[in-house]
Structure prediction request, 344 residues.
Amino acid sequence: MDNIKDYTLAGLEEWLAAHGEKPFRARQIFHWLYQHREMDFAKMSTLAKSLRALLAEHFHTGALHTAASRTASDGTRKYTFRLHDGHFIETVLMPNKGHYTLCLSTQAGCAMGCTFCKTATMGLARNLTVGEIVQQMLEAYVDVEEGNFIRNIVFMGMGEPLHNYANLTAALRIFSDDLAFGLSDRRLTVSTAGLIPGIQRFIQDGIRANLAISLHAVDDVTRSALMPVNKRWPIAELLAALKAMPNESRIRITFEYLLIRGVNDDPSQARQLVKLLHGLKCKINLIPYNAVAGSPYKTPEPERVRAFQQELMNRGLIATLRISKGQDIQAACGQLAAESRLAS
Prediction:
């Protein structure tokens, strides 16, 4: 039995037509699934009973089991979801004034091996399906207060999104579909460790979501030590690929730069970063390292972070500082790692 949320609107229309049903019924089904958040086909009262029975025969609605849920002192909530095959993923709901940002996972675990990231210690179990990606949003909505809403989705949870390209882009279509969540493309951000073929395909396919690239260093020796992917696609090749994008397809790119004490936080490295990014329409998102148990890395002093940011701004770059949320429950950037022991 398939998860109905693995289907985009177009895919569901095709399925209905193949089973002798009117394709427009897909629009009604989407409305029930995503706007009413209905999990029981029998309660979809605008559908004929015969269609409800057909759906129940072939599909399930993809609920995730909440194995754990913790709330941080700043209101951030971290969910640990158990998948149908026993694997675990984590999702983070972050409050803002009048709305929320949701950090989604695209894989159970991760194969990238970044040395600063706790998720890397899990290895990769598997890709998430479209429905498993989308369902994280629906599960989180249970804790959204009436009158508020989830305005932004960032694919910055567990996994490398571009390693799960087909399911990622299908989920993006659902999130932006007016019959589902109706999110603007500019409210969707996909973060990648820098997979050049995936980035090129993302651009060529005309995906209009924002793209955030984890850079974290200005030289190959340092970046390779932090991110093994750099050995395959070093900095020069990555930036050359971005600069080679056709002008009409270019979108503003965010470079994420994790500041680690004594590793990549020197003002001279900030000045080198400016030179590297010359000619790219971009902004820098600085992220002070979030402590992970057993890691050799340390968070820079606040004045060191501010000095790095100022160097960038003095030279004309847009440089924002991310305020990490949920650190006290290990929900901040680089801290996600679903514990297998939860299976008990």
Notes: Residues 340-344 have pLDDT under 50 and may be disordered. The first strand starts at residue 2 and ends at 3. The chain has eleven helices and 14 strands.
